[in-house]
Amino acid sequence: MKFDERAVGRLHYLEARPPVSARPRGALVLLHAFPLNARMWEPQFGLADRGWRIIAPEFAMDAVRLNATATTVTMDTYAGEVIDLLDALHVEDAVVAGCSMGGYLAFALYRRAPNYIRGLLLADTRAQADAPEALQSRKKMLQLVADKGTPAVVDEMVPKLLGETTRKTRPEVVDRLKSIALSTSADAVAGMIRALMTRQDAMAVLSSIHFPTLIVVGDEDTLTPPAMSEQMHKAIAGSELAVLPKAGHLPNLEDSQNFNEVVARFLDHRI
Length: 271
Fold this sequence. Notes:
Blueprint: E1 4-8, E2 11-16, E3 26-31, E4 52-58, H1 75-88, E5 94-99, H2 101-112, E6 117-123, H3 132-148, H4 150-161, H5 164-169, H6 171-182, H7 186-197, E7 213-218, H8 226-235, E8 240-244, H9 251-254, H10 256-270
Parallel strand pairs: 3-4, 3-5, 5-6, 6-7, 7-8
Antiparallel strand pairs: 1-2, 2-4
């Protein structure tokens, strides 16, 4: 699917527009995972053919673009960038999809400006803030990226991001994931880690979400296991839950066909 690389102010983004023959459905905003960038969503850009304007903001950027430092970037920083981008593009509301870190960002956007969201897709994410042991792990990763750069983080994260089936039988997905992650600067990785560490717990806001919501998780996800998605599903009234077989933390890459079918069905029937 053809897409364009664009920028509004400091924020870069990828965009795929629907063909003129398609009935306009509105905007679908895709928020990427850590330690990746907007290119992780390329398998979903084909949804533009169904009438959706795909907008994938790029948060894997150096801190200078965010007018911040790696130690001051927060989820609210990113949420503010999304709001500024949507305003600049004259998008009044959108279906917002977030995978992993992108889900945490979606919660930050919801807390700050719920009027921008008319539908929500939460993929392989959770509402809880980091537990103490997770915070310690992130501190170690901050030191790792400072000492050895992005490649060291990629080596540590890739086995955790992909399900066992993908690691054993889909080498092309492993290679693609590494390529995307390695294109992320060490400064951007550090900024994302800081934002992850300081994010707010979102459990209390789940019951207030009343727009259509789809929750997707791979059944081999060990970072945010299906039980966490089931917990969110129970807390968000009217939400849908899809557990994708033989996929890990990134089902949109690991099994893009199944993922896209689930998302398209949700968009067609619920939005």
